[in-house]
Amino acid sequence: MINEHLPALIIGIPLLAAFATPLISKINDKLRNIFVIGILGATLCLVISLAFNVFNNGIFVYVMGAKSPGLTLPSGYKMPVRIILEVDGMSIFMAIITSIVSLLGAIYSWAFMHKETGKDKYYTLLLILAAGMFGMEFTGDMFNFFVFLEITSIAACGLVGFRINRGESSEAAFKTMVMYTLGALFVLFAIGILYGEYDALNIATLASRIRYTMLDKIALGLLVTGLAMKAGAVPMHMWVPDAYAEAPAPITMILVANSQASLYGLFRVCFTLYGLTISTYTLGWIIIILGVLSMFIGVTMALIQKKIKRLMAYHAISQTGYMLLGVGVGLAVLSDANALNTYGLKAMEGGIFHIMNHAMYKGLLFLTAGAVIYATGKRNLNELGGLAHKMKFTAIFFIIGAAAIAGLPPFNGFASKLIIYESVYKFNPMLSVIAMLVSILTLASFVKVFQSAFLGPEIIEVKKEPKSMIFAMLCLSVIIIAFGLFPDIVVDKIVAPAANALVNSMQYIAAILGGA
Amino acid sequence: MIGTLETGYGVWSALYWLLGLVVLFIIVYFIYSLGGKTVKASGDKGKPFLSGNEMEKEKIHVKASNIYWGFTEALKSYYTPLKGGHTGNINDYVSWFVVVLAIVLILAGGL
Amino acid sequence: MILVLKSVIGACLVAFIGIVFGLLYKGIDRKLHAHMQMRVGPPVTQPFKDVRKLFLKENLVPENAVDWVFNLMPVISLVSVISILLYVPMGVDPILSTKGDLILVLYLLMLPAVCMILGGFASSSPYATVGAQREMVMMISYEFPLAVTIIAIVWRLSKIYSASNIFTLQFIAAHPLWNNVGVFGVIGLAILLAVLLIVTPIELSKIPFDVPEAETEIAGGLLAEYSGKNLGMFYISDAVKTVVMASIVVALFFPYNISQYFSFPQYVDYVIDFAFFLFKAFVVIFVSVTVVRTSFARLKIDQIAHMLWVPVTITSIIGLLLLYLDTVF
């Protein structure tokens, strides 16, 4: 019985638990922490069972309030009007990332936020953020997508400005709010244009009706720019260091998954909504240029930063460039069947695999940065030193995360970067060269952080790291090492269905309209 | 074979490399153990070599802003406009967004 | 199963070859360098005696150093640099040729340098830190020309052949590119060869690019606080890295074998190919390490960074452009 309602449960359970959290925290703090972790753990189990369902049976269509998409309302509408959740390979891929990251963030927050006040609001907003991300990834309806986009924006801004005793947090929250609102309003405008033209809000229906007039081109431009800004592409990236640096460390990890959810929205628009009608070559090149700029400018700005979390935030921008590059190459050769089969599909698999790897190792790095800030209370690299003498676990996890992000074998960053290099070079060799260059610059900046924070004589007092923080970091390290040692299993079972789902947009449309 | 990643044009297997590493580690550790013993020095032998100057611990550690001086100095003509562009002003953020929107609309419109 | 056995025995074999021939080449290099300076110089087996003497001394760990990083880095550096030899052809096909390719070799080349850098940083001494960060700046700077060279060669190969293992060094060594390109291609390949020969001494930190270990300026640089068996391990790994870089240059540009001209049984073929490979590696080391070492003075770090980012990069991109023009005409 649960199996029929899985997508709605995955969105609904965190949402309802979010509203129950303030009531439970009035009883007991520890009970509330266990409640939140339990809810997110249950969501993870539901996501895994939905994943098995989707991988075995194909696209999972769930209609809110009816049994099939074709059931009409009494007034005789002949096309799907209800909100439809459509889960294909790409959606469930992003949902796996979101659920793992939210669960580990909640476990880490147990000790990290132990001494702060207002924790009930913190956990409420965390659950709302998780529910909003699941909604963005599962929905098959454009306006519903906008609604969940706004839900995650509000929750994210609240969490970014959580520490209101610091002036920088409030300023960062203000800037994030302005940029998110601007992006969301442009997305709404584009959705409004499409609705006015075609009288439909469902993605599958729109995709089958789009004719690519001038208004559609305007809508495409607005959607691509708005969603790319929310994902953190250069040159609209400047809110990212402010937001990621001022949010508490576990929230930054979940914000990374949030940016990747809007990246998912961008890919859904480009591949499924517009995929059949436009010549994807120019659009692909736009995304590739955004990717290359993000990679290079992100990492060169990161090399000169002095605050530990700002440096890591610039690296998040740079790694987003890798994902845009990989999938952009796939988009550019979508119409050329020969090139698509030789290297286009592999490039997309590389970019999509990189999304999952990035969430894991970036999350680990942000958690170690949080551990450093928790232990010493300082954020500036100029004031730290010699932490590896006392904080051995954090140092080892930092080495694993830094080696993974730099792409050193045998961790998972090397596997996904290998796929990207060895398929993008066929499209244009300079892209592959720039990607390799960015990889070594990434290594350089993390060696800099390791030296100034962890090595050197002991000049700072440290507190001991609590067990829940070490546990969360350990889970991420195990996932990183496992994905690095067995990359072919991950690529065949999880990534290849996602790439195929993006490329075969006819399947997505036929799942709703064909059966109606 | 499990664990072998086949990209379209290359191969990578992490398990065989780790196997080679383990064998090599045994060999190299054997060579390493033939050496003299490890002594943690203290007193004058253990201080960092600074040509005889005495310094307290805070001054010994090279700060993060001074690392990679050669790189930032060589690429000064690239870094100065880049750092100038990141002002922190919300008006600049929005104007960059509008500029990119205009460019994408022109390019996508010509499709 | 056979591959597992092959990799275990091959690892032992490759460790022996790497260490012995690496130290031998180091000795020959010192002898030739001395003769070019009108001196007699040390005997050719001097590096073996140096290593033996270093291993007899006491291993001193400074007071402020992070112990586990300080002692672990020399071991990991030597292990990782020997493991590269499993993937590189030395006259015969590489041992693990079906399990790793050129991009893996490129990334594995970063590992010994990073280990040396982390070892230098772990010494917690200002001279060591300055030396180590100079090594890192050099590593950043030489990556662009090296990446352009490698991707240009493989891209040009992929336009001619369509195979599923183009990136493996076995394929690249079996299909040398000089035969299959026109006039533009030959000029482009010559330019890329020159760029790779410039990058080789930079990667090995030899004069004129040995700012990280500048004995006269920063008192030994990143190896300042190392002594005893740790210093011996770094010495050996530097020697093995020379062999690795030379064999990569040989595999990319001169992979020809002479055993096809004689008709000997198969194991004699292996020996002849390996001997010819040793000769070619010696020529590469002579041209790019010994001659350059004798002729030039040391450059400053920002001069090196500027030289690599502006002229050498532009030269390598010109080489790539010439290879591209070769496919058009």
Describe the structure concisely for a colleague.
Chain A has helices at 6-25, 29-57, 89-112, 119-138, 142-160, 167-198, 203-209, 214-231, 239-246, 249-273, 280-302, 308-332, 337-376, 392-406, 412-427, 429-454, 467-485, 487-503, 505-514, and strands at 60-63, 84-87. Chain A has 516 residues and is mainly α. Chain A has 19 helices and two strands.
Radius of gyration of chain B: 27 Å
Question: Which percent band covers the strand fraction of chain B?
Answer: 5-15%
Task: Classify the helix fraction of chain A into a percent range.
Answer: over 70%
Largest sheet of chain A: 2 strands, antiparallel
Label the overall shape of chain A.
Answer: globular
Tell me the helix content of chain B: 40-55%
Main β-sheet description of chain B: 2 strands, antiparallel
Q: Over the alpha carbons, how many angstroms does the gyration radius of chain A reach?
A: 22 Å
Give the DSSP E fraction of chain A (strand runs of 2 or more residues): under 5%
- The pLDDT mean of chain A sits at 90
Q: What order do the SSEs of chain A take from the amino end to the carboxyl end, as H and E?
A: HHEEHHHHHHHHHHHHHHHHH
Q: What is the residue-mean pLDDT of chain B, rounded to a whole number?
A: 85
Largest interface: B-C, 48 and 73 residues
Oligomer: heterotrimer
| Helix/sheet category of chain B | mainly alpha
Protein model, in words:
The complex is a heterotrimer of chains A (516), B (111) and C (329). Chain A has 516 residues and is an all-alpha fold. Chain A has a domain at 279-485. Helix content of chain A is 76%, strand content 2%. Among the domains of chain B are: 4-33, no CATH class; 65-111, no CATH class. Chain B is flat. With 329 residues, chain C is mainly alpha-helical. Chain C has helices spanning 2-36, 46-56, 67-84, 102-122, 126-160, 169-174, 183-204, 215-218, 228-253, 266-295, 301-328, and one strand at residues 59-61. In chain C, α1 runs parallel beside α10 and α3 packs parallel to α9 (228-253). Chain C is globular, with a radius of gyration of 20 Å. Chains in contact: A-B, A-C, B-C. The interface between A and B is large, with 65 and 49 residues. β3 of chain B pairs parallel with β1 of chain C.
